[in-house]
Design goal:
This protein has 7 helices and no strands.
Length: 163
């Protein structure tokens, strides 16, 4: 697996998340591209690359949004690690595990992020978001996980340019 290709895709994920997907909310929720990307990377290449991608993407998001530095990086790290350890238990040609893990990771991410932010006195409206937009966001992430599964299957399995 080409690490430069994975780094480029991670950078593209951060750029698309920050400049495109945040401007188009659906039902009060925005598509969170990082979670399905990290889950799919974990399923395809394992826990170490997915954890590193998750930590880097999370730190970049934390820095760019001005929130508590490291919270997203830590949560994305664990999402990548969990998806990576599932690599041997799932068939990487089937998109259903990526979709299910992405939907579950969205709920876990939000609940832990809200708890940590609440602990740091930086959040509000937890119950309002939990009632509706969180479910929509989880479904959007599941849909994006399916799309990313198809795209990453083609991109990450291309032969290396320099062997």
């Amino acid at each position: 697996m080409n690490h430069f290709r994975l780094a480029g895709l991670s950078l593209l994920t951060v750029i698309l998340q920050g400049s495109f997907f945040t401007h188009f909310p659906i039902g009060g929720a925005t598509l969170h591209l990082a979670i399905p990307f990290i889950v799919n990377v974990g399923i395809y290449v394992g826990p170490l690359p997915a954890s590193i991608c998750g930590a880097v993407i999370g730190l970049i998001e934390d820095i760019s949004t001005g929130n508590a530095i490291g919270v997203r990086g830590l949560l994305y790290f664990w999402i990548g690690y969990f998806a990576g350890i599932m690599k041997d238990q799932v068939n990487d040609d089937d998109a259903r595990p990526a979709v299910l893990i992405s939907v579950g990771a969205t709920f876990v991410f939000f609940i832990l992020y809200a708890f940590i932010s609440r602990f740091m006195s930086q959040t509000g409206g937890f119950l309002l978001y939990l009632k509706g937009p969180l479910v929509i966001e989880a479904l959007l992430n599941g849909l994006m996980a399916w799309v990313l599964h198809i795209v990453l299957r083609r991109v990450l399995r291309l032969p290396r340019l320099y062997s």
